[in-house]
Design goal:
heterodimer, A: 440 residues, seven-stranded mixed β-sheet, 14 helices, 18 strands, B: 732 residues, 22 strands, globular
Chain lengths: 440, 732
Amino acid sequence: MLTGRSELTQLSESYRSEMVFTPMRGDGLDLEQLDSYLQAWLATTRPEDIFGGGALLTGLAAQTSNAADLIHLIERRVGAALIATAEDPCFESWLAFMGSCASLSRDHPGTPMINLDIGGGTTNLAFGKNGEVLRTGCLFVGARHVQVEPGTYRIVRLSRYATRLFDDLGIRKGAGDFLVPEEVERILDFYLMLLQAAVAGDPEPSQKPIARLHEHSAFHLPPLAGEAVVTLSGGVGELIYSHLRGQPWPATTTFGDLGIDLARRLAGVSRWADDFRRYVPAGGGRSTVYGLLRHSTQVSGNTVYLPSPDVLPLRNVPIIGSISLASTDEDLCGLLGLLGRSPKGGCLRVKLAADGESAIPKLGTRLAGLLEKNFLPAGRPLILVMEENLGKVLGNYVSGWGRIPCNLVVIDEIKFRNAQFVQIGGLRNHVVPVSFHGMN
Amino acid sequence: MKELPELASIHVPVPPRDEEYIASALGRRVSFRGLKQLLGAADYSKAGDRHAGLAAPSESVREMARSILSGLSLQHIYDHPLTDDDGRVDSVMRVNYQIDGEVFSSIGAMTVGELKNHLLRAGSTDVKRIGRGLTGVMAAAVAKLCDVHELILIARKLSCPTRARTVLGTAGTLSSRLQPNHPTDDLRGITLLVYWGLSLGSGDALIGLNPAVDTVDNVSTLLQHLDKLRRSTGVPTQICVLAHIKTQLACLERGCPVEILFQSLAGTEKTNLSEFDVTVDLLDRGYRTMAAAGALAGQAEQFMYFETGQGSEFTYGKHNGIDMTTTEALCYGLARRYDPFMINNVTGFIGPETHLDDFEMIVSNLQDHFMGKLLGLPMGMAPCYTLHSNIHLEGQQIATELLTAAGANYYMDVSLNTDRMLAYFDTSGNDDQTLREIYGRKPAPEYLEWAIRQGIFAHDTSGAIIRGPHWGDPRRFCDSEAGFRELLEATPAAYGFDAAGPRPANKVSREMLLNQSIAREATRAELRVDDLMNGLIRMTSMRVLDTEAAGKDAYLNSPSLGSRLSQGSLNRLTPEHKQVQVVVSDGLSAEAVHHNLERLLPVLLEGFAGRGVTMGEPLLVRYGRVKLAEPIAEKLETDLIVYLIGERPGGDALASRSLSAYLVYRLTDSLAQMEAAQFSGNPEIRFEYTVISNIYSGGLPPPEAAAVIVEKACEILKQHAAGNRLEALLGN
């Protein structure tokens, strides 16, 4: 047996479906049509061959009434492999930063960066330094709030946000009407005002009701954030970087929305133009899906403590808190008490810090003592997650070397995220995939 | 595809009784019982043959043996097939008789001495023709009569081009196999090593990876990854993952790109069967499968790849009383049956028990190259060394200079000479380019064309091939600097990419050799028994025992001494009937014990106690080898030995502190013994082994290793099985 660290490496595109616009039925998603897409896309793949994967529901699609049903549909198609789902926009912002400009950020240590991931319905903002995300937010600014006939500005459909914006701007037009250039510019002015205010940390513009309506999650820059470099991702970002590489802009409303117009306006913001040229993320474009896999899904070390592999997968396990050698018995009892009240059990982060491996026997034995006193209902999952490669030995101490009956899993070599839930996939080749969601 | 004659249809004379060969000179008389003894005595003195009692005791005895051998006819050698320990002709020997009968009848009356003279006088065509009529034993006999010049001169007359995607071995070329081994098969590290090698102009023979984990899943992943790298760089070459032949065939069945089929070979059937798990039937099946369904079927003229090297039969104690050079020649006789694309000779890989020093390694390499070429094989050479031998970089470099003069088809490219997985030292891409520049050689033509397009090579004003602007720059294959750094972070022992001409820049060489020297010192370090006992005194006491090795040199040079307890120590042990006995030995790195034991042993003992496993008081044995576990288990009548032992150090100073745990299960239960015999094909099997390696702060931390060992030991005791049989029972 050779031991060593496993990681998700060399992610590559083995299959890419054709791009389709999200099929809608009324105000909801057209699940029947989506299911037939999935069936066709997954035709050449067996669910059991998939180690782990993610599904990302973004922007306006995530706002639909039956958005959760789509996630369940995907779960049914790929089974236990689906270990990362993203339904909260802050997580999406984090992923976009990690997927698009984390490497760039690490290459420029000390330079704060704000990534704008501009898609069809939302702009996900993330502020980070040295490859780490520090703040996230989300605005309903995107290319497809106003859908038009390709090649023209004849309105096909308006989102409810666009309808309200039109009212606010006094544009009395709807499906079938043509927008004149001046109206397009006023819509884009509004979007740019929101984006520039967010990047500048200027709270003033967002006080207006129409601006507040477009704010999904507030984006608060940290104090003394300094002037940040702005990077882009998402479809609009891809258009801008492509243009800067010498590609002509696509023809008027080629994609049937205002994405190209928004891109042109953003490219013209003099304050950001230099950033767009000098700080180009390696991936650009489809950063969020890549980020979901590359940065959200981690692979454990290959010596996890997992006496019964069939307890996995575990989904949506709440993260209860952290423990360390410095935790008092009262702290430990409190956390185990909380965990006992959670039907799905819970996850505790183990911090060894300066104590290192010498903390393992002491901490493990203390926890074992509490478990022996039946602090947890039988079968309730207790998940311990740690960064060090010491999962098996900690698990053995906590379980009294397998003597104490408990549903204990210890997963090591995982970088903990500031999140609310953890998902753990099935065991394969001695490792398990782990993802976090519900970013704080 | 070549026809493969049925084994039974190959005629081999019935072995007669051993003759006595006698010679006398200046009043001295020597005699040798049988051809095996004569062949052994006629060779240069090498450690493996000395340990086997085959080497001549003196130079004069060796020369008298050579005189006798010179006078024997080839027909005599033909009529005296060498037999195994049971007196039978084994399958390897039988395949060696698959020769061109017409050619043999034209030379059978020649003596070995006359054959040597003829080979020196003859032209290339005739030398090549004669080779088709020789068995491996005949080739070995003439090799033993040749000095260094003769080994080079005759081999130089022979070329053996082969063709897959690229053509190897044509005049004026010197190719290389790029070996991007990584200790954990990390795809990023492998990618960097491939890019690095390609940037040095390496890999025209093959991109061939030794996997750290030989499973169908893992090998499939690696094959697909190498295929992806080949396609994305556009390099014209072939790929191979050097897993067991059964694993590769299973990958092929899954549709993986198995382009070249690899297998290690030994020169006796017993070694092939018991240690390498291969038979002639299996090799035949592999050959036929590749011809019909290999990834290069219909395109490649050759598609088999064998690795050999002097001493494996001796190391495994299955040499049948035949010397190392002759068993090596028998490998070639077996390989010849499959018209291979490549042969790679790795003499020097095993250690001082077979080749003690630079001279023994160099001369063996020249013999091997000579014999392989004479028998018609496309010989690639990998003169190499381990740190517990007295072989050094300079000795290896002398070997490559001589072998290039002799016309070796290719060398290895192991980045900065340091194999990151196998803990040995081989030629590098820098070495390969240096040799090309000294001897005016080029890579294979298809590859060269690609490399010129990439700017790795270029034409100078006179049209000669020189290093191009991108030579030695792996970054050019990466999308970005960040991408390159990600690969670099996953690659151990990457001391730098700067070059001075074709050589690594001085600071790179210095760092590499400093690491190597520290690791070499670890092999010489003595176990500090008192310090260990004092450190552990609060946790446990230990019994200290000795092996038959009286000192470090004896221990390193003769593995068998470290595999047996001294009589005094043996007398101290009596049956204890415990489930587990922990044994600690220095192995090949006492430093590994010093750095890990105090962090590992207390957790290990606590774990076994916690699981209710009975244990004897731990044993600490100086100069111990892994095989020592067996006599200890038998004497104590223990079910399982947990043997903690220092690993063979590689080139990284930190990794020279790496410890292994061998879990050695004694098969006492008759049902378990029967099942183990059935599983292994070895009816006499008495022990099964599970290994947990890489235990040190940079790998598996000692306390974590202790928990892994406890869990695995409990599985072994519960399932009454260890090793591959245990993993099969557990469904892994």
